Amino acid sequence: MKLLSSIRSILEFVFQRPRVEREMEEELRSHLQIRADELERQGLARAAAERQARVEFGGYERYREECREALGSRLLGELMADVRYGLRQLRRSPGFTAVAVVTLGLGIAANTAIFSVVSGVLLRKPPGRDPDKVMMVLSIDRAKGWGDNPEHPVSAPDFLDWRNNSHSFEEMAAIAPWGDFTLTGHDEPEHVAGTRVSANFFHLLGANPSLGRTFAAGEDEQGRDHVLILSYELWQIHFASDPSVVGKTVKLNGESYTVVAVMPASFKLLDFPTQVWIPLAFDTRQLGPAGRQSRSFFIFGRLKPEATADQAQAEMSTIAQRMEQSYPEADKGWEAMLMSLQEFLIQDFYIRPALMMLMGAVGLVLLIACANIAGLLLARGAGRKHEIAVRSAMGAGRGRLVRQFLSENILIAIAGAGMGLLLAWWGINMLHAAFSYNEWVKSLEFGIDMPVLIFTIGLSLLTVLLSGLVPALQVSRSDLHGTLKEGGRAGGVGVSRDKARRVFVVAEVALALVLLTGAGLMVKSFLEVRSANPGFNPRELLTANVSLPSSKYGSPSQQAAFFQQVTEKLRSLPGAVSVAAAANLPLTAEAGTVPFSIEGRPATTPKERPQARNYAVSIDYLRTMEIPLTRGRAFTNFDDQSAPPVALVNEAFARRFFPKEDAGGQHISIETEVGASSPWREIVGVVGNVKDYFGQPGFNPQIYVPYVQAPSAEMTLVVRTKGDPAALASTVRATVWSVDKDQPLGNVMTMSQLIEARGVAGDRLMGELLGIFAGLALILAAVGIYGIIAHGVTQRAHEIGIRMALGAERAGVLRLVVGEGMRLAAFGLLIGFAFAYPLPCLFGAAFEGFSVHPSWIFVLAPALVAIAALLASYIPARRATKVDPMVALRYE
Amino acid sequence: MDNLAQILPGTLDLLILKAVSLGPLHGYGVLLRIGQISKGALLIEQGALYPALFRLIRQGLLKATWGTSENNRRAKYYELTAAGRKRLREETEGWNRLAAAMGAALKATPEEI
Q: Which of A67, A71, A73 to mutate to test the interface with B (most CBs of B within 10 A)?
């Protein structure tokens, strides 16, 4: 009660000072008036009465001042005095203040920025109503083919059976994402990413359009499916945010579609980038028996309110088992697995381990920062033991002492937090910019995560307050007399407090070593992957993606003719050395794995068949990519549709499947199209190994087929150029348009850019960030060690003075001080090494394909930390030897 | 003025609480009431009242509201809070004990020793 009204009174005094002052003034004046009124009634003239009242009141100004004090200004005054004193103390040791504030700021900023990004990505809820109830149902390949994930999309007949037989879901919907469409009917043809969805897809997610209506039931049937929903982004850019777009007709792949809705900007599913949604109508082939083996649809299900994910999983497992028996040919060995949509979007994103690792790294940085602050404050506190004892002897109460120490430390904490906030804001923006290698990550919005900010600031405050409290409490507890008698030298030799500081040095060294080793491993892995020979020459290559609309180039021969014509024209360009077209490029993870059979080997079931990466390429492909032909011949113009089917294989293929015989002349059959009768292809040559994706550990078996024998509507043109490939970009565009002016080109970029976009950037960002944090940790640890050792030296100035006066050599003193620092560092390195040693294993478990020979990192990282520690103790040691013995002896 | 007793330090707060406990008063009214109940025997310099009033407000023993005095002046009226009433009771008991003890001590005669 008393405390409450005290606080209120003080707060009023602070924040409503004018009002409080005015009321006080008014009350005192009113008193004078009332008294004067009375005196007037007793017969005095008004002026005389007022004068008399004033006299009787006493010292007006003095009492007014006393009133102010009574209102709480005294506490305020003390607080202000503490703050002023604190500021003065901090100003007097600018080095200490700067180090403490910067350390805190960096620790807070690194954590807040990284945790904000992590929670922005990992904890982001999918759009729509009650997203926790939305599940993905996936097909799981129990036997998990090598090099592949066990999770697969689902076939149309499986989906329909699941939907008809399950009871755990309110509704289920299928989508076919990543479709490539050409949008025409406006000024420029545009390439758009489209997703086909069941009519109830939006209803299932509980997502409402910002304009128009979502698909109606039945619109996902053949014949009624020519309706389309625009993404906000496409609506904004392509349709200039036209509010009357709903009801208009646009051409998609040459066919007319009616726009029925525009989705809001917030409707985004990380993994399924989409600019247009159109209804998904299964065709007879997809629904037929062969369709059951064609797993390409992603299934969404909304759980009934009373159903749990576990119940639904149990039910789906039962259904999947029944289907294994009913359709052994297609479904034997396949299970059904549930996963929440949120989890699915993250796991498919391959960033969880990276983000987790970053969180670990910044956590270490924060620990080092806290250890740093604690060490610095303890050292400082110990050094001020004498000062505290004097103040205490002169009558400062324990509470008053603690308050003064706290206000000083709070100033540091506030400055650190402010700096942390600024840096965090800057860091998040920087991270966001760095993440821009991926369009869909770029579209995420990150903000400072409030709980995280509060947590980190809270933790730092706690560290600062606790380490600030210790010296104040210790001294008030300790024997003043002794402290005063020792003449202030106690801080330097006090054994128990020194132990605490030693522990901090050891801990910091250990933490820095762990972080540095981790960062070193990441950077080395990145360098190793980057310098690995991909098997072809990625320099001076220009690539351009072409996706032919089926309306115009429906037949394979039309597609082949188009690419034939374009490559011919490109070849005649002056800057072009060689030109090829390919359905998929190496190092980009574009090529899929296909099962195949080898002639003369026992027939196997589709699931047991060997697999290889399949590349459909034009003639000149090997020459353009500079992939060596080791045996046999390359493709020629004669390998066309009417010629016998042929294939090339890489050396890994030949070694794995024909270890003893010659691969040339053997026949293989690739099941590129389910149900289609695949012809036997003769292997006509063996080529060098090429990496399929960036960071691939070894080489996989690969099969090349001439694209004219396996045409596709989507191809990438590859041009080997003389000089800078980017310079040829506009010429290539113009050449394609000279063949077909309506044909859009996607992603005209150099091979290096393409590789960068498909994989390197993420690895590099990871390496860079870890490098930054490791550098930060190293600097912080060095500063911490320096601070503590330098302080120890200052404390021992007296002792060192005596030693030198007694004839100790400079070298001896140097050895003494540096030796102490290095002993602690060595101990820290030992502990740190124990924790750093298993890191390569841990990383290997977290990142697929991570294999690094850590040898030199285990030498370099400790060496770096040791050098930092050496410097941190050498500088104060050198200063110690410069001490004039006379001054040191007179010190204090 | 010599015939007026200087009040003991610490007793002003108690007097104010007592005065106010008899009904809401403005500052000058408190002085009049103290004069009245002490039969004019206790002297308080008028200005000294206000720091004490503000201190009691801060301690939550009094609360104040603005009102109008009998001769139409705007004035701040004070009354006791629950905590103030409790404090008045405790302090009164304490004072009575002290006064009784002092009285007894000062009345002591050589025979009683």
A: A67
Claim to verify: residue A735 and residue A810 sit in the same structural domain = no
B51 touching chain A per CB within 8 A: yes
Q: Which of A716, A480, A457 is nearest to A580 (CA)?
A: A716
Find the Cα–Cα–Cα–Cα dihedral A72, A76, A77, A78, rounded to 10°: 110
**Looking at the structure, do residues A317 and A370 belong to the same domain, yes or no?**
no
The answer to the question of residue A283 being in a domain is yes
A106 lies in some domain: yes
Give residue A752's Cα distance to chain centre: 23
Contact A138, A152 (CB under 8 A): yes
What crossing angle do the helices spanning A94-122 and A450-477 adopt, rounded to 10°?
Answer: 150
Taking a C-beta distance cutoff of 8 angstroms, is the pair A732, A542 a contact?
Answer: yes
Instruction: Give SS3 for A266.
Output: coil
Any chain A CB within 8 A of the CB of B86?
no
Q: Which residue, among A150, A137, A104, has the nearest Cα to A336 in the 3D structure?
A: A137
Query: Are residues A645 and A694 located together in one domain of the fold?
Result: yes
Cβ contacts of A66 on chain B, cutoff 8 Å: 50-51
Q: Does A438 share its domain with A354?
A: yes
Model ipTM value: 0.88
**How distant, in Å, are the alpha carbons of A576, A578, A718, A730 from that of A542?**
10, 11, 6, 11
Q: pTM here?
A: 0.58
- Do A392 and A473 fall within a single domain? yes
In whole angstroms, what is the distance from residue A97 CA to residue A83 CA?
Answer: 15
Name which of A37, A56, A72 is nearest B58 (Cβ-Cβ).
A72
Q: By the 8 A CB rule, do A697 and A686 touch?
A: no
Q: Are residue A74 and residue A40 in the same domain, yes or no?
A: yes
Residue A34 has pLDDT above 70, yes or no: yes
User: Is residue A271 one of the residues assigned to a domain?
Assistant: yes
Neighbours of A836 (CB within 10 A): 24
Question: Do both A308 and A176 map to the same domain?
Answer: yes
- Name the H helices within A711-760: 729-739, 751-755
CB pairs under 8 A between A and B: 78
Question: What's the token pair of residue A621?
Answer: 């492909």
> What is the rounded average pLDDT for all residues in chain A?
80
Same domain, yes or no: A759 and A674: no
Domain boundaries, chain B: 5-105
- Per-residue model confidence (pLDDT) at position A491: 40
Strands A227-230, A255-262: pairing is: parallel
| pLDDT above 60 for A96 | yes
Measure Cα distances from B21 to B14, B75, B90 in Å: 10, 18, 14
Confidence at residue A673, expressed as pLDDT on a 0 to 100 scale: 44
Distance of CA A735 to the CA centre of its chain: 40
Query: What sign does the dihedral A424-A428-A429-A430 (CA atoms) show?
Result: positive
Domain boundary among A301, A332, A363: A332
Q: Which of A2, A6, A63 sits opposite B51 (nearest CB)?
A: A63
Token match 């303890």: residue?
A: A378
pLDDT more than 70, % of chain A: 82
The answer to whether residue A66 neighbours chain B at the CB level (below 8 Å) is: yes
Domain limits for position A710: 553-741
Q: What is the CATH class of B5-105?
A: mainly alpha
Say yes or no for a CB contact (<8 Å) between A59 and B47.
yes
Which comes out higher in pLDDT, residue B76 or A404? B76
Could you write out the DSSP letters of every residue in A494-545? Answer: -HHHHHHHHHHHHHHHHHHHHHHHHHHHHHHHHHHHHHS--SS--TTEEEEE
Q: Is the pLDDT of residue A263 over 80?
A: yes
pLDDT higher than 60, residue A480? no
Number of domains in chain A: 5
Q: Which chain B residues are within 8 Å of A60, Cβ to Cβ?
A: 47
Q: Shortest CA distance to A569 belongs to which of A724, A730, A736?
A: A736
Minimal CA separation from B57 to chain A, in Å: 8
